[in-house]
Amino acid sequence: MARIASGEMKERLAVYFIMGSQNSERPTADVLKEALDGGVTLFQFREKGPGALKGADKEALARQLQRLCRAYGVPFIVNDDVELALAIDADGVHVGKDDEDARRVREKIGDKILGVSAHNVEEAMAAVEAGADYLGVGPIYPTSSKEDAKEAQGPDVLRRLREAGITIPIVAIGGITAVNAKTVVEAGADGVSVISAIASAPSPKAAAAALAEAVRAARTR
Ligand SMILES: C=C1C=NC(C(F)(F)F)=NC1=N
Ligand SMILES: [Mg+2]
């Protein structure tokens, strides 16, 4: 299998759902199924924070969610845990500054999808150098989903990256909803990633569909 093409990566980033067992009172697989029915285009398993599953329990949940994504033809990405991603043959990993070095991860995962977090032009350039297939940029707006999130940067950080000549696929993250998704795509993101906008919604299916529509509409400008 070769590295994912940039065009396909951009398409997959349209509505990137991220979730772990701690992001909903409901069974994780139930929420994910609704999100997949609503049209999310990429999924990241992010098992983190107080009460997060570990070891065999974490792997069992990962495999359950991976099977669900496979049934929908949606790639399955693992956050932080490169060893788990390799053990279950996930479609990719996402790493940030406090995880394993991106260059080292690229060596370990071969042609799997590699996502890297970036907060500014310098980090973005380094991530491209390391062989990232996409960048996660944010938090764009204040977020309730990440305890140690940095200061919200606003959509301008996306414009700054594009003006600096960063052409790699970019997904925006942090406090994104169907209301502000258009602004974020117009600022230069290829798609939006969300946790609570879908995981905490009364209807994750409706929330995913609304996000997909907002991104589609923003792209046709
Ligand atoms: C901290 C993160 C930043 N960005 C992303 C993604 F949206 F996937 F790019 N995922 C993370 N876990
Ligand atoms: Mg991380």
TrEMBL record:
Keyword Metal-binding: yes
Binding site for Mg(2+): D80, D99
Record keywords, A-Z: Magnesium, Metal-binding, Thiamine biosynthesis, Transferase
Pathway: Cofactor biosynthesis; thiamine diphosphate biosynthesis; thiamine phosphate from 4-amino-2-methyl-5-diphosphomethylpyrimidine and 4-methyl-5-(2-phosphoethyl)-thiazole: step 1/1
GO biological process: thiamine biosynthetic process; thiamine diphosphate biosynthetic process
Cofactor(s) required for function per UniProt: Mg(2+)
One GO cellular component term: cytoplasm
Pfam families documented for this protein: TMP-TENI (PF02581)
GO function terms (MF aspect): magnesium ion binding; thiamine-phosphate diphosphorylase activity
Residues annotated for 2-[(2R,5Z)-2-carboxy-4-methylthiazol-5(2H)-ylidene]ethyl phosphate binding in this entry: T143, S144, S145, G175, I195, S196
Catalyzed reactions per annotation: 2-[(2R,5Z)-2-carboxy-4-methylthiazol-5(2H)-ylidene]ethyl phosphate + 4-amino-2-methyl-5-(diphosphooxymethyl)pyrimidine + 2 H(+) = thiamine phosphate + CO2 + diphosphate; 4-methyl-5-(2-phosphooxyethyl)-thiazole + 4-amino-2-methyl-5-(diphosphooxymethyl)pyrimidine + H(+) = thiamine phosphate + diphosphate; 2-(2-carboxy-4-methylthiazol-5-yl)ethyl phosphate + 4-amino-2-methyl-5-(diphosphooxymethyl)pyrimidine + 2 H(+) = thiamine phosphate + CO2 + diphosphate
Keyword match Magnesium: yes
Residues annotated to bind 4-amino-2-methyl-5-(diphosphooxymethyl)pyrimidine: Q44, F45, R46, E47, K48, N79, S117, K146
Enzyme class, broadest EC rank: transferase
EC number: 2.5.1.3
Domain of life of the native organism: Bacteria
Cofactor note: Binds 1 Mg(2+) ion per subunit.
Role of this protein: Condenses 4-methyl-5-(beta-hydroxyethyl)thiazole monophosphate (THZ-P) and 2-methyl-4-amino-5-hydroxymethyl pyrimidine pyrophosphate (HMP-PP) to form thiamine monophosphate (TMP).
Similarity comment: Belongs to the thiamine-phosphate synthase family.
Listed name of the protein: Thiamine-phosphate synthase
Species whose genome carries this gene: Geobacillus thermocatenulatus
